[in-house]
Amino acid sequence: MKICRFDNDRLGLVSGDELRDVSAVLAALPAVRWPLPPGDLLISNLDKLTAKLEALAETAPAKRLCNVTLRSPVANPGKIIGAPINYTSHIAESKAQDGIISPRKISHISDWGLFLKATSSLVGAGDGVALRFLDARNDHEVELAVIIGRQCTGISSAEALDHVAGYAIGLDMTTRGTELQSFRKSADSYAVLGPWLVTADEISDPDNLDLRISVNGELRQNSNTRELVYGVRKLIEYASERYTLLPGDIIMTGTPDGVGPVEPGDIMIAEIEKIGTIEVAVRAA
Ligand code: MN
Question: What distance in angstroms lies between residue 140's CA and the mean position of ligand 1's atoms?
Fold first, then answer.
């Protein structure tokens, strides 16, 4: 299933260039009150809603995707985890552009660990990226995003994929500079997720997916997730050694070479095999 959030928190099932409005299923979510349960409420309950979603989609009204505004398919992630220098090709370009891509000595992901992006930075395709700090370089980073489906901690890479709800395209937008990653990569709208969530059953091996991004029609990044230093399974293991992973947590798995600046007015089009294509407009904040 391809599950999207659109317009004012409507829920859709995507098929081709249409969606079916299945928002009625949201009435089946458990009633909650403060303090809210940890994790995203929809992702926590997705397994229980699957049959209902599919049944609803058969008779639900159809809408053309071009007539809706796509939001982030995860509404309330507990955290957005980033993976630095996780493609060999990106390590090479980071070394070549000494000090520009990262102020730190480039080594291995195991030396750097992971970083967190503020959840307030999260937007969907239709929201677009609103650039700040226009005197600095603001880069696109296209990444496979993993959405955790079940709470877990200390899990092995062998069992990691059992805890995944699905996948999406992630854009880890980045202001270059000397500050820490969590600061430079957390401005409002600097985490794009979408265009929808593809459930895990549709992607048997997340470590073999083509991914690319173009800006104004010019191809910038073009790789395959098999080039990841820590593949998806290993990344989940690595993250779960440190954090309890919750339903709706997002792991942006890292970016290949070809990162580069965007400016207001640019159009980014990113594509990941078996997920789809996301179009994101760039403007000034
Ligand atoms: Mn990144």
Answer: 9
Q: Which residues neighbour 17 within 8 Å (Cβ) at sequence distance 6 or greater?
A: 64, 65, 66
Confidence (pLDDT) at 218: 98
Helix (H) or strand (E) holding 110: helix 109-112
Point out the residues of the chain with pLDDT beneath 50.
none
Which of 206, 188, 234, 203 has the alpha carbon at shortest distance from 144?
A: 206
**Could you tell me the distance, in angstroms and rounded to a whole number, from the CA of residue 174 to the centre of ligand 1?**
8
Ligand 1 centroid–CA 85 distance in Å is 8
How far is the CA of 139 from the CAs of 213, 232, 261, in angstroms? Answer: 12, 23, 4
Q: What is the CA(259)–ligand 1 centre distance, in A?
A: 9
**For the chain, what is the radius of gyration of the CA atoms?**
18
* Whole-number pLDDT of residue 260: 96
If you measure from the C-alpha of residue 220 to the centroid of ligand 1, how many angstroms do you get, rounded to a whole number? Answer: 15
Which residues, at least 6 apart from 110, have a Cβ–Cβ distance to it below 8 Å?
A: none
- Residues with a beta carbon under 5 angstroms from ion ligand 1: 141, 172, 255
Tell me how far the alpha carbon of residue 7 lies from the centroid of ligand 1, in angstroms.
27
What is the reported pLDDT for 268? 98
Intra-chain end-to-end CA distance of the chain, in Å: 34
Predicted local confidence at residue 129, as pLDDT: 98
User: What CA–CA distance (Å, rounded) separates 54 from 6?
Assistant: 18
